[in-house]
Amino acid sequence: MNKKVLAIVEGEKKEPQLLNRLFDTYMYRKREIVAYGANIYDLYNKLLDFYGEDWKDLDFLLFLREQEKDDGKKTIFDEVYTDIFLVFDFDPQDNRFSTKAIGRMMNYFNDSTSCGRLYINYPMVESCIHITSFDDMSYLSSKIRKDELSDYKKIANEESCCPDITQYNKMTFSQIIRLNLWKIVSVLDIDKSNLSSDLYDILREVLKLQVVLWQQESSLYILNTCLLCIYEYNPKMIEWLDRK
């Protein structure tokens, strides 16, 4: 593929490791993966400081360039990218958690070819490995409670059937993506055919559902969405699994 993508991710280790493996597997040779080093609420507040409430003239690459302290990395944000992805955790336990903030970020960053497309992982990126078996349909209803969040990385790793991201191949990624798509269909109670429309509208509904679940039950559906950036480019990538 000739396209060059930019991914702005929250963490410095797990997210770059996962996306580098994903892009290598699906032949996205040209990319930049930049760790923002803080969560989505920090990013939101810095955008407010930089642009105020009016985001109609928001230039995300310019903003990132101005925020970058390493002069050697500033040139990353001078390049032209066919797609820009943002990958962040839901982080409801953060004292800056705000439904307004995360809702506005989701609504604004909705187009990978212009402003960027935001993918939120629930509760965090380790949701990609938190699958006990690819045949275990209990994943479709699995949740994490508020009192478990501090130990979530350990829980996900101990219960995972696929903890080693460095070993992921097309089969592994396709199975994880398919399970997460099935889960979205299940928790939203929608028809599978809806996935053929703009998936981002569906991801907005997922966010709304997770906010309500958190407010009412102090829990979240375990769900990984960042891998869907590949699925959205080629929805047929998982069809072969159903033909096996």
Describe the 3D structure:
The chain is of the alpha/beta class. It has one domain (4-242). Helix content is 40%, strand content 14%. The strands form 2 sheets. The chain has a 5-stranded mixed β-sheet with strand order 2-1-3-5-4. A two-stranded antiparallel ribbon has the order 6-7. A hairpin with a 4-residue loop joins β4 and β5. The longest helix is centred in the last third of the chain and has 19 residues, at 170-188.
> Which value, in Å, is the CA radius of gyration?
17 Å
- Sheet with most strands: 5 strands, mixed
Number of helices, where a helix is a run of at least 4 consecutive DSSP H or I residues: 9
| Net shape | globular
Query: Would you count the extended β strands for me?
Result: 7
Main β-sheet, spatial strand arrangement: 2-1-3-5-4
| Proportion of residues in extended strands | 5-15%
Q: Helix- and strand-based class?
A: alpha/beta
Give the topology string: H per helix, E per strand.
EHEHHEHEEEHHHEHH
**Fraction of helical residues:** 40-55%
Task: Estimate the mean pLDDT confidence.
Answer: 92
